[in-house]
Design a protein that fits this description.
InterPro entries: Molybdate_resp_trans_reg, WH-like_DNA-bd_sf, WH_DNA-bd_sf
Shape: elongated
Number of strands: 4
Order of helices and strands: EEHHHEEHH
CATH class: Mainly Alpha
CATH superfamily: Winged helix-like DNA-binding domain superfamily/Winged helix DNA-binding domain
Strand order of the largest sheet: 1-2
Helix content: 40-55%
Protein name: Molybdenum-pterin-binding protein MopB
Number of domains: 1
Distance between the termini: 18 Å
CATH topology: Arc Repressor Mutant, subunit A
Radius of gyration: 18 Å
Length: 125
């Protein structure tokens, strides 16, 4: 069997499906994180390689699904527009990131075992 050092590090992607109300996964969490950092839905979308329309759609979906808005936005004008995470939005992001960390920690032994079971892969795959 090949040396396991040739396998890239394992990334855990957690996706929570709340029935037909909401799917919360790494993409939406990353979008929230970037909105918080950049203060703009369009800048956050651009940083992720997504259109403003798609970013806005995801924000609307999350705002509608949670009991309180997770992102508050203001339209452009003389002072320019912007967006920020609400306290609920910061809490959603924090809880999601904590759940990612706990899941990775709890499953670390199984992840190592699965990684060790991987077969050789041809170059380019």
């Amino acid at each position: 069997m090949a040396d396991r050092d040739d396998i890239p590090p394992v990334r855990l992607k957690l996706r929570l499906v709340f029935g037909d109300r909401l799917t919360l996964g790494p993409g939406k969490a990353d979008l929230l994180e970037r909105i918080g950092a950049l203060g703009s839905i369009s800048a956050a979308g651009r940083a992720m390689g997504m259109s403003y329309r798609r970013a806005w759609s995801l924000v609307e979906e999350m705002n509608a699904a949670f009991g309180h808005a997770v992102v508050q936005s203001t339209r452009g004008g003389p002072q320019g527009g912007g967006a920020h995470l609400t306290p609920e939005g910061r809490q959603v992001l924090t809880l999601y990131r904590e759940l990612e960390d706990r899941t990775a920690e709890a499953g670390a032994d199984q992840i190592v075992a699965l990684r060790g079971m991987l077969g050789d892969m041809p170059q380019g795959k």
